Amino acid sequence: MKSAPKKRNVILGLVLLLLFIIGMVGIVAATGWEETLEHLARVGWGQFGILLLLSLVNYLARALRWRVYTKALNIPTGLLQDFRHYLGGFALTITPGRIGELIRLRWINRDTGTPLERAAPLVLVDRAADLVSVALVLALATALTAGGLAGAVPVVIIAIIVAIIATQPKLLVWSITRGWKTIGRLPRLFGGLRRAAKQLHVFAKAHIILPALLLGAIGWFAEGYAFYLLLGWLGADITMWMAVAIFLFAMLGGGATGMPGGLGGAEVALIGLLTLQGVPLEISLPATAIIRLTTLWFAILIGIGVFPFNERFAKRAL
After folding, report:
1. Computed over its alpha carbons, how large is the radius of gyration of the chain?
2. How far apart are CA 168 and CA 191, in angstroms?
3. Rounded CA gap, 187 and 207, in Å?
4. pTM for the complete prediction?
5. Which residues contact 136 (CB under 8 A, 6 or more apart)?
6. Where are the alpha helices (DSSP H) in 73-151?
7. Which pLDDT does position 1 carry in this prediction?
């Protein structure tokens, strides 16, 4: 019975990957193969490895941030456990709303006996930290980009406002309460969210906030920089900060669609924004396909590799 959800997640992942590949192939076929393949051939295995390495910088930086948060909550996990939990959670990134990543709390419970409710704030603060880190790097990139990136400023402002609410216990509790009064359903869910939100005060300290934001910013900038390198290798004439801004804007836009992993929305945003910057489709299409393979799908692959170790070494039963 326990293997059924895992099988469904694997099937979902394979279906989404297949749809991603079919979609990209269809677009390339509609625009012409020759020039696209010519540009794609410019990216060798060594360059592909650099892209994967920069993505790994992102994952490890965010895993270290997770470590900062578990220590703040006095959860008795070790460094390797925290890295194992965080990276293993990537296996379920493609679940709707990324809710599958909640399995990290299950592993914490089984490894340390920490109640799920006590560890729940980790999920809230991790999501908020990602949001504000992306928003801050995007704001910097937009400010340093000649002419700016149309539409980025409102997105940055909204992202920062949401992140502030998500990291301030009183504001978040108020928002959850308003949500409960509006919907009037799922009392246990809203009750659990309220209790988790009240524990967020432990993260609202400078010695926790500053390193957490720095780690998040380093991680997301690394992937944005990888996108810049990739575009250069493919022959696109675009500045570093514009490439970083386009990548992060697309990630926020993809996440806003609610699709697992931002699939569909992020790809459309990347291609559209590159087109607005004068990058031809024979470059933007392979750039989009490669950067998504070396970020989203690489993270999922890492998660799948680490997942069995978490299941094996997490000894305690729920």
Report:
1. 20
2. 17
3. 35
4. 0.81
5. 160, 213, 217
6. 79-89, 103-112, 116-119, 121-143
7. 41
